[in-house]
Design a protein that fits this description.
The chain is of the alpha+beta class. The chain is built from 13 helices and 17 strands. Strands 4, 6, 9, 13 and 17 form a 5-stranded antiparallel β-sheet that branches. α1 runs parallel beside α2, α2 packs antiparallel against α3 and α12 packs across α13. The longest helix has 20 residues. The relative contact order is 0.13. The N terminus and C terminus are likely disordered. It comes from Lysobacter arseniciresistens ZS79. Keywords: Signal.
C-alpha cells in the first residue's frame, strides 16, 4: 500500500519572475500539445512586492495541469507539476492545488487499473462464449468504461458489473441472468403507502417516528501507519434536523475520548485518536441513537409560485464551481427538457424525470472528477450523488433553490448503503425533499388509490440518516491532509502526521436497527 506524504513546504514565498517565465513557457508548450491554448498575457513583475505576475502564472499552471489530467496526459501533467513545485515563486495555494492533482492522478489509477486481459477474463466469468465483436462494440461505445492514459488503455474496476446494468444486450448474454440487487426502498412498498396515509390523516408532513440504534466503525489496515504513531479518524455523525432526525444521543465511542463536532457543522463528525500498534488493525467506532421521521409533503402545483428574492435563498440559486456550473451544454439540456413550462413545480417534475432517466452505475471516486454535474450529463450513467448534483444545478439554473443532503440508508435486514439526495424550495411550501436516484414510481398507487409516482419529489422514507447538509465543507477539527472524499462524507476520513490514508488502506462498517419499543410507530414497514 502506498501512503502519500503531502509536502506543503513554507507558507511564505518570494516571487521569482524569471523562473515563472520559464514555467509559463513549459505550460504553453504543454497546452499546445493537448490542443488547448495557454494565455501568455501575464504582466512582468516589477519587484518582490508585486505578486500579480506570479499569481497569474501559478494559476495558469494549475489550470493547465487540471486540463492535462482530464485529458489523460499524466506524464505531461507530472512534468508541469514538478517544474512548478521547483519554483520558489509558486504560491502556497497553487502548490497545494498541484500536489492534489498529483494525488488525483494516483487515485484515478486506482479506479482505472484493469487492462484488456483483466476485463475479458472477468467478462468470460459471466459470458463464457464472449465474442470479439461484442467486446469491441461495448468498448467503442464506452459501455466498458475506460481511459487511454499516456497511450495505455485502462478500464474502470467496475466496468464489467456496470456494463450489465447499462446494456440490456450484455445483461441478456450472461450465463446466469440473475436480477440486480437493489435496496428495499427502490420499489413502491407498504412503507411508502403508510407514510402517505399517515400524512393525509394527520395533516402533518413529518410522520411515523422511530428510534434507531446505530453503530459505525472504521478499521485501519495493520501497519498502514508505523507503530507508535497517532491515527486520527473522523466518523460521520448526524445533526438534529427538526421533523427529520431528532434527539440524537452519542452512547459510546471506542476509544472513549471523542470530540463531537458542533451541531452547526454541515458535515458533522465524531473525531477520535488512537496509537497504532505493529501488526494490528487500528479500530474506531461509535454507538448512538436518534429518532427518525418519514416525510410526505402534499403539493398542489397550481399553488406553487416563483421563489422570493430572499437573501437566505440566494446561495441555493447560485453557481458553485467546480460542481455546480451553468455550462452551455447544461443550458441546452435544460431548454430541451423544460420547454416553455413556467410553473416551478412542473419544471422540477420535468427535470427530475429527465435526470432519473440517466441509468445508475457504480461511480468512480468523486475526488477524481473535475465537474460532477457536467460528468453526469455526459457520461451516459451516474450514481446518486452525481444525479443529485446534476438536478441541483438544473433546478438552480431555472430559478428553483436547491441544496444537498446525504448519509446512509438502511433496512430491516442486512442491507445498508451510502446515499445522496437533496432538497428544493417551492413557494409557498418551503423546503421539500427530493431523491432523484430512487426516482419515480411510474404508475404506482397505494391500496387506497393514492398515487405514489412522485413520492420522492416531496417525500422521504424513514430508512435514512443524514450526515451532511452540504457538500465539500470542512470538518471540526479540520484535517491536516487531503481528504479521501472531497465532496461527500459518509465513510469517514483517516490520517496521521505522515499523510492521508486513502480508502484502500482502511474499511468502514455501519449497522442500524429500529428499537422494538418504537416499531409500532412504523407498522407500514412490515
Amino acid at each position: 500500500m502506498y501512503t502519500v506524504r503531502h509536502q506543503l513546504g513554507d507558507t511564505c514565498f518570494r516571487q521569482r519572475p524569471v523562473r515563472h517565465a520559464c514555467a509559463l513557457l513549459l505550460v504553453t508548450a504543454l497546452l499546445a500539445g493537448c490542443g488547448a491554448r495557454a494565455s501568455t498575457d501575464v504582466p512582468a513583475a516589477t519587484g518582490d512586492g508585486d505578486s500579480s505576475a506570479g499569481a497569474a502564472a501559478t494559476d495558469a499552471v494549475v489550470d493547465t495541469v487540471v486540463a492535462l489530467v482530464d485529458g489523460d496526459r499524466f506524464e505531461a501533467a507530472e512534468a508541469a507539476i514538478a517544474a512548478a513545485l521547483a519554483d520558489d515563486g509558486t504560491s502556497a495555494a497553487s502548490r497545494r492545488a498541484l500536489l492534489f492533482q498529483r494525488e488525483r492522478m494516483r487515485r484515478i489509477l486506482i479506479d482505472f487499473r484493469l487492462d484488456e486481459d483483466d476485463v475479458r477474463a472477468r467478462l468470460r466469468q459471466a459470458i463464457p462464449d464472449l465474442r470479439d465483436d461484442e467486446f469491441a462494440r461495448w468498448k467503442t461505445t464506452n459501455l466498458l468504461e475506460h481511459r487511454v492514459i499516456d497511450g495505455r488503455t485502462l478500464y474502470f474496476v467496475r466496468a464489467v458489473p456496470n456494463l450489465f446494468r447499462l446494456s440490456p444486450e450484455a445483461a441478456a448474454r450472461r450465463a446466469d441472468p440473475k436480477p440486480f440487487s437493489q435496496g428495499p426502498m427502490e420499489s413502491p412498498n407498504a412503507h411508502h403507502a403508510a407514510i402517505t396515509e399517515a400524512a393525509r390523516e394527520s395533516g402533518d408532513s413529518n410522520v411515523l417516528p422511530r428510534r434507531v440504534h446505530v453503530t459505525q466503525s472504521i478499521t485501519v489496515d495493520p501497519d498502514a501507519v508505523p507503530a507508535g504513531e497517532t491515527v486520527r479518524a473522523w466518523i460521520p455523525f448526524p445533526r438534529a434536523i427538526p421533523g427529520q432526525q431528532e434527539d440524537i444521543r452519542l452512547l459510546e465511542s471506542r476509544p472513549a475520548q471523542a470530540r463531537v463536532a458542533p451541531e452547526s457543522t454541515a458535515q458533522r463528525t465524531v473525531y477520535l485518536e488512537r496509537v497504532s500498534r505493529a501488526g494490528e488493525p487500528t479500530r474506531f467506532s461509535i454507538d448512538y441513537e436518534l429518532i427518525l421521521y418519514a416525510q410526505r409533503h402534499t403539493i398542489d402545483p397550481d399553488r406553487v409560485v416563483p421563489a422570493p428574492a430572499a437573501e437566505t435563498l440566494a446561495p441555493h440559486l447560485a453557481e458553485r464551481p467546480p460542481h455546480i456550473v451553468f455550462t452551455p451544454a447544461l443550458r441546452a439540456f435544460s431548454r430541451k427538457v423544460v420547454g416553455d413550462e413556467t410553473n416551478p413545480y412542473r419544471i422540477a417534475q420535468k427535470l427530475f424525470a429527465a435526470v432519473d432517466d440517466i441509468p445508475w452505475a457504480g461511480a468512480r471516486e468523486y475526488s477524481t472528477i473535475t465537474n460532477i454535474s457536467d460528468y453526469a450529463l455526459h457520461a451516459g450513467h451516474a450514481d446518486c450523488g452525481q444525479q443529485t448534483l446534476l438536478l441541483m444545478t438544473l433546478l438552480r439554473l431555472n430559478g428553483i433553490p436547491a441544496r444537498w443532503q446525504s448519509g446512509m440508508v438502511y433496512s430491516d435486514g442486512d442491507y445498508w448503503n451510502l446515499h445522496d439526495w437533496g432538497w428544493m424550495y417551492l413557494a409557498p411550501y418551503g423546503w421539500v425533499p427530493m431523491d432523484v436516484t430512487t426516482g419515480r414510481f411510474e404508475g404506482a398507487t397505494a391500496a387506497d388509490g393514492s398515487s405514489l409516482e412522485w413520492f420522492y419529489l416531496g417525500g422521504l422514507d424513514a430508512y435514512r440518516i443524514a450526515f451532511n447538509d452540504d457538500y465539500g465543507t470542512g470538518f471540526v477539527p479540520a484535517k491536516q491532509h487531503f481528504r479521501s472524499e472531497t465532496v461527500d462524507s459518509q465513510r469517514g476520513e483517516v490520517e496521521w502526521d505522515g499523510g492521508n490514508l486513502y480508502f484502500d488502506q482502511w474499511d468502514y462498517d455501519f449497522e442500524a436497527r429500529v428499537l422494538p419499543d418504537t416499531a409500532r410507530t412504523a407498522r407500514g414497514n412490515d
